[in-house]
Amino acid sequence: MQTVFYERRAALEFRVLVFRAVSAGVCVVLLLAFWGIQGAGDSRYRERAEDNSTESHPIPAARGAVHDRNRNLIAGSSTRISAQIEGGEVTPDLLRKVAAKLRLGPGHIERLLDQAPSLAPYEHLVVKQDLQSSDLAFLSANREEFPQVKLVEEFRRHYGHERVAVHAVGYVGRASRQDLARREFLTVDYGAEIGKSGIERQYNHWLAGKAGRRRKEVDTHGRAVKKLDEERPLRGRDLGLTIDGQLQAVAELGLRGRRGAAVAIDPNTGEILVMASAPSFDPNGFANGMVPEDWARLTSDPSTPLLNRAIQGTWAMGSVFKPIVGLAGLEANIAGPSFTATCKGGMAIGGRYFRCHKRDGHGTVDLSRAIAASCDVYFYTLGLRLGIETLSEYAEAAGLGRKTGVDLPGEASGLVPSAEWKARRSLQPWFPGETAVVSIGQGAMAVTPLQAVHAIGGLALGGIWHRPRLVSDSFRRKMDENWRAPQPAIARIDREHLRTLRDSMFNVVNGGGTGGQARLAGVDVCGKTGTSQRVSNSLRIRSGRPDFEDDAWFVGFAPCDFPKIVAGVLIENGKSSSLAAAVVRDILQAWHLGRPPDDDPKPKRRETPTLAMAGPGL
Amino acid sequence: MSGDRGAKARFWTDFDGRMTGVMLAIAVLGLLQIYSATHNSDLAAAFPQQCTWLAVGLVAYVAVSNADYHNLVALSPWMWAVIVLLLVYVLAFADPINGARRWLVLPIGASVQVSEMAKVVLLLVVARYCGGFVAGKVRARDVVPVIPLFFAVFLLVILQPDLSTALSLLPLLAMALFLSKIRKRYFAIAGLLMALLALLAWSTLKPYQKDRIMGFRGPSEAPLSSGYQILQAKIAVGAGGLWGQGLGQGSQTQLRFLPAAHTDFVLASFAEERGFAGVAVIVSLYMWLLWRITDTARKAREPEGMLIAMGVAALLLFHLLVNGGMVANLLPVTGLPLPLMSYGGSNLLAAMAMLGMVNSVRIRRFVN
User: Fold this and answer.
1) Whether the predicted interface score ipTM is above 0.85
2) pLDDT tens-digit profile of B265-282?
3) CA distance A616 to A614
């Protein structure tokens, strides 16, 4: 029993050993290759495997409600379901098929097709916002056919039928790429609903809450295999505004059909009771995903309905500025009882003739009479005595020329002209005639209605200007215990001077002055009228164009000796300030009727004002 | 030389129990992996089918071990004729599956891949014609008939088309050349021929095949194209780490991100769930198997037996290298299965039949 002998046996056995060596080499190389991938403890692979198999969906948080100061609902939330497709999976063919099933109009489909190519893969195309139950039934029955269509439960913002204070409250919309670039929206998901303007934007961090997340394990076809974990959403916090819905409604009614703004503040706290702007718009349109045509219509409307005129538009302050000039005169010890001017319907300054609004003149007037009758000649004279520097100093003390700091985005700062300001933008020197123009609140001087109300309110209070706010201090402290209320700006005003100014403004309304329209039974109303020119008087008359007509102002406060509310109205091209005064009157009347009967003692005129402060001027 | 009493008597004493054990260990680990990769999918039938094939394979293994390999070698020209007829038949009449005509549907319902059977036949053909040459008893020209016999099958497989299986036949020829006493310049000529063949093959490649070969270096660049498989395999292997995710726990396998997790990429699936430790065990088992086969080759009674054993070893090593290298991201994606592990009846049956022949060679090493 032995193997067959052949001559190459030894050589062959050697070659078998060579083959063994090669085999061993192959095995070692394979093991090294596997070690390279598996042995290094590289967690990236496991993460990638996890990425493959998990899908994370945000669970939207209910947006907090917005109430007015009487806990009436201004903005609330309800749920809805929308159909969305991920950017990477959108094809025109799929879109057409789905759109046909969801019965979308041809315009809607066109728009979706336009949008689709510019989507990033992580973005979602919202095919239909508010799915009806028939849509839902269809989509859930055909999940296999349209696996790309995702049903997303969302909250829908809705604003009440009254649509109170839409400019102040603002509106919500889906976060765009530009929005995400802003610091304030750092933690927001793409496509999430965020506040785009007004309170909705200013307090988005409170209202929005925190979206939750649902993680699912999915297989290679994207089918959910099991639920992994879930982070519950955190509901947004409700926000109470200082707006008084009833006063707001009165103001909005008064502005209906006009372009203008109304603002009312409690000067003792800075709380804003009314902020209205006309014309208005429907904020529900934004929450529902606005059709581009509607958006174009809103933005191209010459009457700018999206503009919050109360804080974003500026106008010449007109004669409403005169009490501030008067304060400057009093504090500079110029405009005492002996300082008078004789008005013959105008006066010459630097070779030019400056008219008073009353052609046949006011005769000889002192400060009190000049404010009540709004005599321009008196204020030309006083303004020239004071000089532009003093004028702008007092204007700025009253908060003009800079943002009031109200808790709203996009506030305008307005402008208080000065010699220095002119030097910055022109080679020409400051002319005395310009001082005269500023003295009656015309020229380059520009204020927002909120600034005008803020300025007069603080003045009426005796030189305390609280920062205007839509969320009260006490409410803010509730939301954020670290909140420190900003200190009011304070100017020391001689109490006699204050009394003089209040009396003159009392006379504007009650003493045969220009603001008789604002007079009310049962409560003393003080105020100041104003008309501000858009163009020169001669051009206005020559052209006859309605948009060249003067803008009408009235700012009033009540009660005169203990101001609890200051309200101002601006009406663009309103011609006569009595139009504005009537709206202020309605607001003050609503305020007066709405407050408890024993809110304060029946005003006794000529009592020493308690809030007035003694001492020299500024 | 035919199966005499002596062989019968020696059957159980010389039966290679260790090789059989290693073979079964690999097959069982493969079976478990096939179960894990398919049990919760629409491919769940794969596991019982593979179990059946393993049983059939075992019967074939014992039967072939029992048969005298000399008889098989002697019959090989006839087997060749049958195989060529079958290859022509499938080319002409079989319904294409995934664009290729590879499958012969048997009346009992099972279907076999004829090219796998051809592999076994060519092993015997090469042993028959090259045995004397390897022993140095005959001249080179006596070996010439093997060339048309081999390449007829080779071409018929390419035409199916199944390039990778055709290429996987070449190690048989290479092994015969490696063992034979030919001058070094013939090696050079053979190498040149191989290179020409490779060029020819490249020019006939389909775009998807070229993609596969070019794609394996940069899989991450195109996650949804030809690099997808490679990328997912790499993620699966890497996610396995040292100790694996556990059988039935690998997300790449279970959620079917890993394509062909029970066939060509069964090793990736295995690596995900069993980790590097499992891979080391598997590679060691293959090494052990190769050791036993080459041991038989050394002890074979005459060159035919040695050629059979070494041919099987060459085929096994080639498949291990190409499939393992693909899973480990060393080599391009080819459709070659991992012998004994990948799902597929024909492949398992062919592998076990061939190992049966090796066993037969071992059992009959001393017999006169």
Assistant:
1) yes
2) 999 999 999 999 999 999
3) 7
